[in-house]
Amino acid sequence: MAEFHDLAELALNSEGQSWGNLGYWQNADNYSDACRALALMLGEQSGLDRHAIVFDAGFGCGDQLLVWLEHFHIAGLHGINLSHSQTRFAKAKLSNAGFEAEASAIVEGDINDPDLWSTTLDGARPTHVLALDCAYHFPSRLAFFRLAQHHLSCAGKLALSDFMLAEQHDTGSWAHRMLGWMLHRSHIAEDNMVHRDRYLRELQDSGFEDVRIIDISDHVMPGFAHAMRKLGRERAASSATLPWSSLIKYRVTGWFLAWAYRRSILRYCLVSARKAR
Ligand SMILES: C[S@@+](CC[C@H](N)C(=O)[O-])C[C@H]1O[C@@H](n2cnc3c(N)ncnc32)[C@H](O)[C@@H]1O
Predict the structure, then answer these.
(1) How confident is the model over 242-258, as pLDDT tens digits?
(2) Which positions ≥6 away from 170 have C-beta within 8 Å?
(3) 93 CB under 6 A from ligand 1?
(4) Global confidence as pTM
(5) What kind of fold does domain 8-167+192-220+267-275 have according to CATH?
(6) Sheet of 76-81, strand order
(7) Mutation pick for ligand 1 pocket among 134, 144, 162 (CB with most ligand atoms within 8 Å)
């Protein structure tokens, strides 16, 4: 059966890379470098170190798992990803890099399934729960916050790169109806798109404190949109392997994010919070 999250993004990447996020474009001029830069920012923002036990929600094709293991030298890894094809790909990626035990500690499934957290963690308490460019895709971000809080170790960290509604965005406007159409098309629950004050309240009500929200939209949304426009031109100029259906999907997403940025509808942020004592 066709999956919404599959291996299509491989065609956007440089040789050997398989990222699928929006990227951090300040000093990057290709898609894979921008995606890795976003992962590095998230790892730094969450304070990963040699003692960290990471639970990665929505790990894509596994490139970020290698960043946690090889760049931050974390002590342990668990993870859940909804996508069958990506989970299989990520397991192979970890095994090929010599991380056999870690490959068996990442599983396929829905992050909103409480039983899956328990079986995946099997009594372990992660020091860090990470969600790189994916929490807005979850059936309920709020339910994810609560599960993360429940399973994190004492004073453990939750860190995400995520969308929220821009401060001035009016949910009664025509632009909001347009946003609703695009969210539906992108399999994103409308309840996941909230203003910053509600995002903050949801974290606090779920049992988190020391919340930091850093707006990085300027180096994410226009950069991704520009890369997707370029992709279209490159596809036209060469015999690129990207199928037309994927090209159209990425072009529309890039156009939409440029519009949502220009019109101050969405903001893209790095979020971190500590489990309250
Ligand atoms: C935009 S991609 C980001 C992938 C990866 N984090 C990266 O940076 O390359 C979103 C990811 O979230 C995963 N995802 C979406 N819904 C999920 C769910 N309910 N449970 C677990 N993972 C989910 C998808 O399978 C996909 O890997």
Answers:
(1) 788 888 889 999 999 99
(2) 176
(3) no
(4) 0.96
(5) Rossmann fold (3.40.50)
(6) 106-108, 76-81, 53-57, 128-132, 157-165, 266-275, 208-215
(7) 134
